[in-house]
Amino acid sequence: MAGPGRGRQNKKDQEGPRAGELMEKVVKIKRCSAVVKGGRRFSFAAMVVVGDGKGKVGWGYGKANEVPPSVEKAVKEGMRSMVTVARKDSTIPHVVKGHFGAARVILVPASAGTGVIAGSAVRAVCEAAGIHDILTKSFGSTNPVTLVKATLGALEQLRPQIDVERLRGVTLS
Predict the structure, then answer these.
(1) Is 172 helix (H, G, I), strand (E, B) or coil?
(2) For helices 144-156 and 120-129, angle between their N-to-C axes, nearest 10 degrees
(3) Which of 8, 73, 98, 165 might form a disulfide with 153, Cβ 3.0–4.6 angstroms?
(4) Per-residue tens of pLDDT for the chain, all 173 residues
(5) Backbone angles phi, psi at 50, to 5 degrees
(6) How far apart are CA 75 and CA 50, in angstroms?
């Protein structure tokens, strides 16, 4: 098995969550330093996406003096901020656009077997939500924090076909 590194996933990420477990993906860890009398003091901020792989996803941002406590704080916040995402089989019901700040994201449904075609930040959100086939494109800012927020904003706009039919009063095919 390959060790941890860029572009590699550990075995835990490949298996997916078990019943009752949540999938957590660390999107970004930032190191901040403050110059004090004795030198530099470092603190860490972690951005984590949490999901059950069945349509619920959330994000959290935690800060601490060490990396593990900051990730734990982010996971706790992510569990509190979970939202339900409308899905259609293994993809999304329709095309949707999301934006946050300077980040713009377009999510397009894809046929089965396509996979998640996305950058790392958008991919983390889609996989945590249980979306396995999707095409995405991001514009503007490449900041992972704003991309995650833009992606979640787009996913919150999704409506299942049944709801759209009921609202419009027509039958869609």
Answers:
(1) coil
(2) 40
(3) 98
(4) 454 555 545 444 445 556 568 899 999 999 999 999 989 999 999 999 999 999 999 999 999 999 999 999 999 999 999 999 999 888 999 999 999 999 999 999 999 999 999 999 999 999 999 999 999 999 999 999 999 999 999 999 998 888 888 888 888 76
(5) -120, 135
(6) 7
Say which DSSP state 163 is in. Answer: H
Give the largest CA-CA distance in the chain: 70
Token output for 13 = 């990420």
Determine the CATH number of domain 85-168. Answer: 3.30.230.10
Q: Give the residue extent of every domain in the chain.
A: 11-83, 85-168
Phi, psi of 26, deg, nearest 5: -80, 120
Contact 71, 26 (CB under 8 A): yes
Measured between alpha carbons, how far is 158 from 173 in angstroms, rounded to an integer?
A: 18
Written as six digits, the tokens of 21 are 């477990």
Planar angle of CA 124, 129, 131, nearest 5 degrees: 90
In angstroms, rounded to a whole number, what is the distance separating the alpha carbons of residues 145 and 85? Answer: 19
The amino acid at residue 58 is G
Name the residue type at position 62.
G
